[in-house]
Design a protein that fits this description.
Elements (H helix, E strand, L loop, with lengths): L1 E5 L3 H12 L3 E6 L1 H8 L10 H7 L4 E5 L9 E4 L13 H14 L5 E4 L7 H7 L1 H4 L4 E4 L9 H6 L4 E5 L4 H10 L7 E4 L1 H29 L6 H9 L20 H15 L5 H25 L5 E4 L14 H12 L4 E4 L20 E4 L6 H7 L6 E4 L11 E2 L2
Parallel strand pairs: 1-2, 1-4, 2-3, 4-5, 5-6, 7-8, 9-10, 9-11, 11-12, 12-13
Antiparallel strand pairs: 6-7
Length: 405
């Protein structure tokens, strides 16, 4: 089976490499500049095993620029990254226009899979588009389920697969399902609208969980409750589960969760539905974020030497796109430019800009990220008067001078 993957950022590269590992003939398409970078193994983002598998299965991968005509393939998989602005919203008109333009270039009567992040109703609009109707494509929406730092494993070993389509072509559906024939997980075949909505709901539910437990942590702090123990007891309930987002910490960021919350909030406004919980997820999250920033900056004003541990969006990736720790870093840098150091193992070797770490003692250490040597790192660079702000609760609470923001 031959598959053409269009759009090579995180989603597209992970999809391409994973399909190549599964033995498919994969053609990867993007701009000339992006293709040249990938040919030189200069990837736009770090991801566990991405470069390793790309080199290992390169025999199954062909790189092509969008300037070339799309060659005939069984399947065209659209994985363009949907850009999110600083208010966690996408330019929907531009996103739809881009999908239409790409679909126009695809040979007639093709299978078109979309995994780019799109609002509910988008697939239906593509199907009804006057220009695309004559192309006779069969559209499928398969929501991506990637998590930075473990994306390839999530692609190859998912909890479930959702295939959304309104196509009545049974042969094309059979071809799409064949991609996942060796996957040992449930496959849900639903309408395109159901699949699109499922992505919004899952991300909004996770966002709600994060804001909820952060509010609970603020109440719990008034009663000296051990938040780690509280998390364990909550997760022990099977109705909530061990993998639930019940670890309090800093606010969610990165744009992904907030984007889907905003989608649902916009739909509520459009149809005059008073969705009070959905409406307040973002405001509660921003309240938490602003409180943490205020708390840190108030302490930082009176400290001579400050160390921040963690800058990237999460452990295992070098991206700082919409990263909350990076936002805090810039805030502190503006008031303590000469007395501020940062440590992040995902950046230290790759970006000289952040090689600011020294071996001195610090009187304020802010922890945003789990590091393999975190406890010894903190011990080595602190003294009896060092204040430690452990945002993500990575260190035992009994440690002296430890503050949970």
């Amino acid at each position: 089976m031959k598959i053409c993957v269009i759009g090579l950022w995180h989603l597209g590269l992970v999809t391409s490499v994973s399909l190549a590992k599964l033995g498919f003939d994969v053609t990867c398409v993007d701009t000339v500049k992006k293709i040249k970078s990938i040919e030189n193994f200069d990837f736009p983002i770090d991801e566990k095993n991405l470069l390793y598998y790309f080199k290992k299965y390169k025999i199954n991968i062909k790189l092509r620029s969008t300037e070339n005509t799309f060659v005939k393939k069984n399947i065209f998989w659209l994985t363009n990254d949907t850009k999110v602005d600083d208010k966690d919203r996408i330019n929907y008109k531009q996103t739809l226009k881009d999908l239409i333009n790409i679909s126009q270039k695809i040979p007639n009567n093709s299978i078109v899979i979309i995994s780019s992040q799109i609002p509910v109703g988008t697939t239906s609009k593509l199907e009804k588009n006057k220009i695309l109707k004559n192309k006779n494509h069969s559209f499928f929406y398969i929501p991506e389920n990637l998590r930075l730092g473990n994306a390839i494993n999530n692609f190859l070993k998912p909890d479930r697969i959702v295939i959304g389509t309104n196509s009545k072509n049974k042969n094309k559906l059979k071809i799409v399902k064949k991609i996942f024939k060796n996957f040992k997980c449930p496959i849900y075949l639903v309408s395109a609208e159901t699949a699109e909505m499922s992505k919004h709901v899952i991300n909004s539910f996770l966002a709600c969980s994060i804001t909820f437990i952060n509010e609970i942590s603020q109440i719990s702090s008034k009663f000296n409750i051990d938040l780690n123990h509280l998390e364990e007891t909550i997760k022990s309930d099977k109705r909530i589960g061990n993998k639930s987002y019940m670890k309090s910490g800093f606010s969610f960021s990165g744009g992904t969760l907030a984007r889907d919350v905003n989608f649902l909030n916009d739909l509520s406004s459009r149809y005059n539905i008073k969705s009070k919980i959905i409406k307040n997820i973002i405001s509660s999250n921003n309240y938490r974020k602003n409180n943490i920033i205020k708390f840190i900056l108030n302490l930082a004003k009176y400290r001579k030497r400050i160390l921040q541990i963690g800058l990237t969006y999460k452990k295992g990736t070098n991206t700082m796109r919409r990263s909350f720790p990076y936002e805090v870093y810039n805030k502190i840098l503006s008031i303590k430019p000469k007395l501020f150091s940062v440590y992040d193992s995902d950046l230290m070797q790759k970006d000289s800009q952040f090689n600011l770490f020294s071996k001195k003692k610090y009187d304020l250490i802010i922890i945003f990220k789990q590091e393999n040597n975190l406890v010894s790192l903190v011990k080595k660079h602190s003294n009896t008067n060092t204040k430690i702000i452990d945002i993500g609760r990575y260190i035992n609470k009994s440690k002296k001078n430890l503050i949970n923001a």
